[in-house]
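Figure-free illustration: sequence to structure, shown twice.
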Amino acid sequence: MKRTWQPREEPAGKQKAQAPREEQKSALAAQSNPLAERVLHLQRTAGNTAVNQLLRHFAAHTDGAVLDAPGLLETNQSLQGVSLGAVQRDDATAPAADTDTASNGNPVAPTDPGASQHPFLREGSTGPGVEELQQKLNASGVSPELEVDGIYGPLTAAGVTQFQQNWNAAHPDQIILVDGITGPQTWGVIDTMDLPSTVGRVERPWSEVVQGHTYGLTSRYTWRIHDADITVTVRLGFTGLLDPVPGWLDAIRAMWNRFDIVNVDTGETLPLIFDPESVTGAADNNVAVKPGNQRSDAGTWYADDPDANGTACHEFGHMIGLEDEYQRGHADYTRVVGEEPDPGQTTGDDTPDQIATDLNTALLTPAVNDRIDQSLAVISGHSLKQGDFAASIATSYQTSFGVDIVQDIDARLPESDPRNPSSDPQYIATNPFTFSTGGLMGQNDDQTLPHHEHPIEPRHVREFTAAVQAAKGGNWEARER
């Protein structure tokens, strides 16, 4: 079953925008903009971490924008044309050395440009985000040392002001606003310092391109390092049919609670515990449970979904900031998964040019029902599956008709067949021309796709491994229990 997810805005539902595949956006930006070409070169040579540091350097000048100093504004605008999805979220999530190629992927979605993964805090704020801030301010050397109580009172505000003043004194070319408020600008410079904390509050806005659509979500969760474990808490507010909820929460725990964070040198072990909570008050994510079996997203789950437990586990992955691993463009797939797509289907029963022409003819059919039938007949008639052969058809389509094949299908086929609402022609038709894994965040019900040993892997929890390493020092890695 196709799994999608909700846009950032409420109420829950899918937000869609026509967008080129990430690799095409990058290539076009590089062709038209010398700076973009240099940034892409930096990504390929110095790595994503270097690019991320550069972007954070710019963001440090203002709250999510760049000062209009000579060349800086133009630089920032140029960078927006680069595939920022290929930039890792922050240095702490950069892959450690590992013999497993797939472990080098980074499935944690990059924070939207100009935004912060942290909550906006000011005097009067409370909670784990304030605790994280207080710990990091103390680690930065503010004086007097703050009590870590999760309350943003006058002393914490003064500590923030002192931090901002200290930063400006040490970085006269990267001045930030001194106001005692902790917004994206101040969080941005805190993040560059890799300061330790035993608690973190994440409120990360992010987006991705799947099946030719752009989707957005804000992932909200809290992690906390204890003496004996590290816990990740997501508060879920369920409404509607509540009977399936306990089983779904048990399924999430059974799927996700399979890793320990281990010190490679000493053997010290912290179990990684994911704790989804059903709450009636303020929630990190709200989920409406409805009867029937339709397409689920992060905000709507269906009680009659035949794979409801799997859907819950998949959507929980989005709630902790993980991107989809199905129907992705090539650049996004390799960035997220850490390896090249499987060659898959390498030959076909006709030439790529002819199949591209047949599909274009079908997509131009005036009547929508006929358009659906003829387009899907091309897909099924040639038994098209993901792989090198379908990629060659996509190349022929772009060359012959001047448009990306996934974009064209997205524009011309509906998401729901008027004669059979449970059928999604877009999904069926675009699938061969994209890339997917067979893991939990991909299409784990498709046995033709590459499967790793487990539906989730150490790369999916690298953010929390990095948090332990920052807090405790040493060399840590996630290991299957």
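We now fold a second protein in the same way, so the two outputs can be compared directly.
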Amino acid sequence: MENTNNTPQIKRTTVKEKYNQIVENFISKLENNDIEPWSKSWVMNASLPRNFESGNSYSGMNILTLLDRGFTDSRFLTMNQVNNLGGKVKKGEKSTPIFFMKPMEKEVEEENGEKKIERYFIMQSYNVFNITQTQGIKYEPEIKNNLQNSIQHFIDSFNIKTFRGEPAYSPSDDCIFMPHYHDFESENEFYSTYMHELTHYTGHSTRLDRFEKHTVFGDERYAFEELIAELGSAFLSLEHGIKPNSKKQASYLNSWITALKERPNILYSAASHATKSTNYLMNNYYLKEQLKNQHNSNLQNPQTMKNNQVVNNTIQNKPKKNFSPKVG
């Protein structure tokens, strides 16, 4: 229909176009070896990007998108949240899109005439603003993570078999190979490399069972897993206050420029797997810490110690019994 008014028509950007713009910008930076905004944002932020009100962390592709903006604060809000808190967005500030997959279903008819429900996903998006882009909302400055001293404790908590060798993870032996600590140029390089292998570790069949499940096949399977591991290393590094080895990341991601151009959704998928890996490791770590603290608390409780002594005395006082030998 012809526009009879003189008012210019505004073309709405589709979700796919928004996403492709993000990927194209990402590829352009890789081609120009311009990863400083991404690398710099890891150092400036206190944690992975999260929602200001709920405290929930954003995931997958959205981590890359939000960090790429280079804000010094990791907290974001929707426009509705800004309004509900009595604030407003500063004039001239631009929002950042958050992408998610919305489940859909439709009825389809098969060749035999029977009808069935087909389920699928479509990409959707909404926009957020960084808390520093707003005014009229009271908030305290973030406290930057200072967990670098505890990172070795984090690694040790998984009791992973680790041997001397070039950086690698062996799924068949479920072990990690790493050079000596002093073979690296810096502490950050050592730990970001270990986080890369630790992300591979989560793909084992007894954990996230990722190696045979992602949808990129053929010769690209190995490279896809490497992309997951490098993004996972970056996410884990930020969680522990470590600056990722950006030179290493550039070399890994540069090998994916052609693939990203042909299939932009690969980055979304890899980032989603990297988030699952990070969550798996952090949740397991926190659970172990919680159980350990609970155990230590029980040991310090006089009543618990008394009960344990009663149980021990009861076991010791039971009649002896001849047990059949067992094969260990």
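Summary for the second example: The chain has a mean pLDDT of 80.
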